Amino acid sequence: MNPSRAFSVVYMFAVSLVFMSLVAGIYVLNAERIELNEQIKLQGIILRVLQVPVPPDAEKETVVRIFSQRVTTVAEDGKTLYVARNEDGAVTGYAFPLYGPGFWGSIRGMMAVDPELKTVLGIAFYSHSETPGLGGRITEAWFQDQFKGKPLMAPEPGGNYFELRPPGTADQPNEVDAVTGATETSRRLEVFLNRNLKEYLAWIEANKTRLSGGRDTAGRGRARTHPGVPISRRSFSCRFECPVGA
């Protein structure tokens, strides 16, 4: 090989290696902060779907404080549940993860229901790989707001809690408008949404008495976390503020 050409190849390789090492180093140095920010973002989403008041443009520390004061995390039996309470300790709602395959990749969200399991408090989809302007519109307010206040009517055997109908045709209590031009995303979202709902509502109903007791049961039973969802608020809220000796 021509010496000049060989030098160019080695030089480019060395430069690429240096830049790759720098990028990797920066990521490693900031990995914990990135993870913490993602967890705080998720806390904000959970508070929002549970309709727990949070000041507009609240600082991260404020979000963590409110979450710590108002939400109890339960992680057991392969499920993660967030129980919201008012200042008197009474349960005001339950939030749980939504997770399933979309058209291009996994979709993750969060749904909250009232203490009687009869009404949707809120829903949010926060992670997906769907096409922007099409399936990606599941994150838009108009789509998510359709679920708020919807009744949770027990479906017939083999039926669903919710059906996504062609845009502009939803006219029943258990129907919402699908996203225009995103038939597959809407269809797949409907499937895992109803699957998650049936699973969690049945589990909450079976454990409601214990869940209303006020204890953080993360780690009890056969506990494990749902993908992308922290198992316990304590694991990261203490990085901001915790009682002495915590």
TrEMBL record:
<keyword id="KW-1133">Transmembrane helix</keyword>
<keyword id="KW-0915">Sodium</keyword>
<keyword id="KW-0406">Ion transport</keyword>
<dbReference type="GO" id="GO:0016020">
    <property type="term" value="C:membrane"/>
</dbReference>
<keyword id="KW-0812">Transmembrane</keyword>
<dbReference type="GO" id="GO:0016655">
    <property type="term" value="F:oxidoreductase activity, acting on NAD(P)H, quinone or similar compound as acceptor"/>
</dbReference>
<keyword id="KW-0520">NAD</keyword>
<keyword id="KW-0997">Cell inner membrane</keyword>
<keyword id="KW-1278">Translocase</keyword>
<keyword id="KW-0739">Sodium transport</keyword>
<feature type="transmembrane region" description="Helical">
    <location>
        <begin position="6"/>
        <end position="29"/>
    </location>
</feature>
<dbReference type="InterPro" id="IPR010204">
    <property type="entry name" value="NqrC"/>
</dbReference>
<dbReference type="GO" id="GO:0006814">
    <property type="term" value="P:sodium ion transport"/>
</dbReference>
<dbReference type="GO" id="GO:0010181">
    <property type="term" value="F:FMN binding"/>
</dbReference>
<keyword id="KW-0830">Ubiquinone</keyword>
<dbReference type="Pfam" id="PF04205">
    <property type="entry name" value="FMN_bind"/>
</dbReference>
<feature type="domain" description="FMN-binding">
    <location>
        <begin position="102"/>
        <end position="200"/>
    </location>
</feature>
<dbReference type="InterPro" id="IPR007329">
    <property type="entry name" value="FMN-bd"/>
</dbReference>
<keyword id="KW-0288">FMN</keyword>
<keyword id="KW-1003">Cell membrane</keyword>
<protein>
    <submittedName>
        <fullName>FMN-binding protein</fullName>
    </submittedName>
</protein>
<keyword id="KW-0813">Transport</keyword>
<keyword id="KW-0285">Flavoprotein</keyword>
<keyword id="KW-0597">Phosphoprotein</keyword>
<keyword id="KW-0472">Membrane</keyword>
